[in-house]
């Protein structure tokens, strides 16, 4: 099961061998050209495929238009093999405007491609292991869409994920492998092993190679090929593709390759390789294939002629790329987000005769509505499937209603839960996922930052990531240090994601629908203390539940309480800018100051409705920014600074801020917790001081 022997290779057609030889020569001449023009080509760091050409071309020749491809930064020959031209690669090398992948925004051999006749290549980071999770998410999406008959499994679509052997030591690769075998996904992990990291040899970095490591993942088919021999690589990959296409299960191919170039142009081989470079040169795939072609009857003159022709072609491509225009600097800001279709509030917010609903039930009903309407939607995370339906019952009975293929439990893998959504989105599935508690999101931050947040911008809008990530957040009476944290400031420092924070059931349902329909990554923070309106003073979080058609656009704040005209005219009013539990602390505190307090519920933290904030501050001239987070260096302080600058001339007092004490965790004991966190009494004291200023 774990090892399939490859029979003696059949004769590979000479036409295919010649194609491989031409492209190997192309890759070599490109690398030589870059080396000969260091002043130009080393302006931006790059790597080449020298030594890896055989296995990369062998892989490329098996890929089809319906497949999905995840490459790593050395896969230049793989890209040549699927039909990308040297000119196009050079446009990226020189960060030119017409770089087809990123318009000059990201490194050489970091492709993102949607083009007829080519496999789909979603955006990814520098691919030192992180790409394994999004790639596995692609295969997961294929399996899901096939299970729902939204794709035809007979088409045999597969995902190829290319990795360097050093990257297999990453923990995220283990998460990807685990899910691939658990769900029996159609993916090929191509591991190219040249026995080097940067300056570290394999013996320094690992106790086993990738082939040996993969034996621990029951159900992973394993193959080994000579990655410097095109025929062996081609026939080995033929078997890998057969298994993935026909049997719909994962395969790992371990290919030993020499490293003939530099690790990258920024790390010169002469600094550390020594005699090792000469040893690797003896394994160069190009002369090996040339010798084999001579044995097949190709003449030396033919090979010499091809070499001369390729040299002229590459030089022409290089000169053309060199003369190509640079990006227009005025376009630097484009494609942070893809446009959302939801720009206006729509549907019925308060249906007649409707009963009030808690926030947790409104969220459950919103997900139910989505799954009912969109067959490409699915929901997964820890404990959300099966009988439990989430530790807060926020997915109660959904698995029974929609089946285990659509609503299911994952292992304890926050990185996979988040990162897989990038691959899901690229294939056409629409994932809703959950991180069980905000304090547990940290293992998934790498994927959120490197894969999800940058995809739209660096792919020039080709690959926005539609991902709805639900995160229960906040303190709730004795939750302790690992179930009470607030994380919004960390999230808001990640550009390219949206952050939503509803404070009541109606907003929860409307924002959930908008977040799902948004083509960008959205993190939805859901305060546990508001879920059931059991915390004293939070009764207003329970509202009449909107209709199934209700949608509330992101980025629209709400004035949930106004000050009286008399108090405003007398200069005895102020504004509280807040969100989440802060809305209810402010409401409770303001009962002691009748008519003096306007409360703005932000509802969405990014995009921020600063227009509503500014209008409120200008009405009153005094403002308190209130948060549950520790205050120092927080979003609240940042917002206060922005208000100070924008509204300086109308302010009658400094911008006040109030948040939790600046401690590393919320303590377990409820009395200690009370001392750390804001509450209505603390808010009242701040409001009274501000009014008297």
From TrEMBL:
Keywords: Oxidoreductase, Thiamine pyrophosphate. Residues 357-533 form the Transketolase-like pyrimidine-binding domain. Gene3D superfamilies: 3.40.50.920, 3.40.50.970. Its EC number is 1.2.4.4. GO terms for biological process: branched-chain amino acid catabolic process; response to nutrient. It comes from the Bacteria. Coiled coil: none annotated. SUPFAM superfamilies: Thiamin diphosphate-binding fold (THDP-binding), TK C-terminal domain-like. InterPro entries: DH_E1, THDP-binding, Transketo_C/PFOR_II, Transketolase-like_Pyr-bd, Transketolase_C. GO terms for molecular function: branched-chain 2-oxo acid dehydrogenase activity. It is an enzyme of class 1 (oxidoreductase). Its cofactor is thiamine diphosphate. E1 component of the 2-oxoglutarate dehydrogenase (OGDH) complex which catalyzes the decarboxylation of 2-oxoglutarate, the first step in the conversion of 2-oxoglutarate to succinyl-CoA and CO(2). This is 3-methyl-2-oxobutanoate dehydrogenase (2-methylpropanoyl-transferring). It comes from Rufibacter tibetensis.
């Amino acid at each position: 099961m774990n090892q399939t022997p490859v029979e003696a290779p059949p004769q590979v057609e000479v036409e295919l061998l010649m194609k491989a030889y031409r492209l190997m020569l192309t890759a070599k001449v490109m690398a030589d050209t870059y080396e000969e023009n260091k002043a130009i080509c080393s302006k931006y760091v790059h790597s080449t495929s020298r030594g890896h050409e055989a296995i990369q071309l062998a892989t490329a020749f098996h890929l089809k238009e319906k497949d999905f491809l995840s490459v790593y930064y050395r896969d230049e020959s793989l890209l040549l093999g699927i039909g990308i031209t040297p000119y196009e690669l050079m446009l990226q090398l020189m960060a030119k405007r017409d770089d087809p992948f990123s318009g000059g925004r990201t490194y050489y051999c970091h492709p993102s491609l949607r083009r007829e006749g080519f496999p789909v290549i979603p955006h990814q980071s520098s691919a030192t292991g992180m790409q394994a999770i999004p790639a596995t998410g692609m295969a997961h999406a294929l399996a899901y869409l096939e299970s729902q008959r939204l794709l035809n499994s007979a088409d045999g679509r597969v995902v190829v994920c290319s990795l360097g052997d050093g990257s297999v030591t990453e923990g995220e690769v283990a998460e990807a492998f685990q899910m691939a075998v658990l769900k029996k996904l159609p993916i090929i992990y191509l591991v190219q092993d040249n026995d080097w990291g940067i300056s570290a040899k394999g013996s320094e970095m690992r106790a086993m190679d990738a082939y040996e490591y993969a034996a621990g993942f029951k159900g992973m088919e394993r193959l080994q090929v000579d990655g410097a021999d095109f025929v062996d690589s081609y026939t080995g990959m033929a078997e890998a593709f057969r298994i993935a296409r026909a049997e719909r299960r994962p395969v790992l191919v371990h290919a030993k390759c020499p490293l003939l170039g530099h690790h990258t142009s920024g790390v010169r081989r002469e600094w550390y390789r020594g005699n090792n470079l000469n040893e690797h040169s003896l394994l160069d795939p190009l002369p090996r294939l040339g010798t084999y072609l001579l044995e097949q009857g190709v003449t030396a003159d033919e090979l010499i002629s091809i070499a001369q022709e390729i040299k002229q072609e590459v030089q022409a491509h290089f000169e053309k790329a060199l003369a190509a225009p640079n990006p227009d600097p005025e376009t630097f800001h484009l494609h942070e987000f893809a446009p959302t279709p939801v720009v206006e509030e729509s549907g019925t917010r308060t249906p007649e005769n409707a009963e009030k609903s808690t926030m947790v039930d409104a969220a459950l009903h919103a997900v139910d509505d989505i799954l009912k309407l969109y067959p490409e939607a699915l929901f997964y995370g820890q404990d959300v499937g099966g009988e439990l339906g989430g530790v807060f019952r926020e997915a109660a009975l959904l698995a029974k209603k929609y089946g285990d293929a659509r609503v299911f439990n994952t292992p304890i893998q926050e990185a996979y839960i988040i990162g897989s959504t990038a691959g899901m989105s690229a294939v056409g599935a629409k994932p809703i996922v959950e991180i069980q508690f905000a304090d547990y999101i940290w293992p998934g931050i790498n994927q959120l930052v490197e894969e999800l947040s940058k995809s739209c911008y660096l792919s020039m809008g080709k690959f926005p990531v539609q991902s709805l990530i639900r995160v229960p957040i906040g303190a709730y009476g004795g939750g302790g240090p690992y179930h009470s944290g607030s994380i919004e400031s960390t999230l808001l420092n990640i550009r390219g994601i949206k952050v939503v924070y509803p404070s009541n059931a109606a907003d929860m349902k409307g924002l959930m629908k908008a977040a799902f329909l948004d083509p960008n990554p959205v993190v939805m923070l859901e305060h546990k203390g508001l879920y059931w309106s059991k915390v004293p003073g939070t009764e207003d979080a329970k509202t009449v539940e909107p209709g199934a058609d209700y949608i509330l656009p992101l980025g629209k704040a709400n004035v949930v309480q106004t000050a009286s005209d008399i108090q405003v005219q007398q200069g005895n009013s102020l504004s509280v800018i807040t969100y989440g539990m802060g809305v209810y602390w402010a409401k409770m505190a303001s009962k002691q100051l009748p008519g003096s307090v306007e409360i703005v519920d932000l509802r969405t933290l990014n995009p921020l409705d600063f227009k509503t904030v500014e209008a409120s501050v200008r009405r009153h001239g005094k403002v308190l920014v209130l948060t549950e987070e520790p205050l120092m260096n927080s979003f609240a302080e940042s917002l206060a600074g922005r208000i100070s600058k924008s509204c300086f001339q109308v302010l009658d007092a400094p911008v006040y801020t109030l948040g939790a004490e600046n401690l590393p965790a919320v303590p377990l004991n409820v009395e200690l917790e009370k001392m750390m966190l804001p509450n209505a009494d603390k808010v009242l004291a701040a409001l009274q001081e501000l009014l008297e200023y």
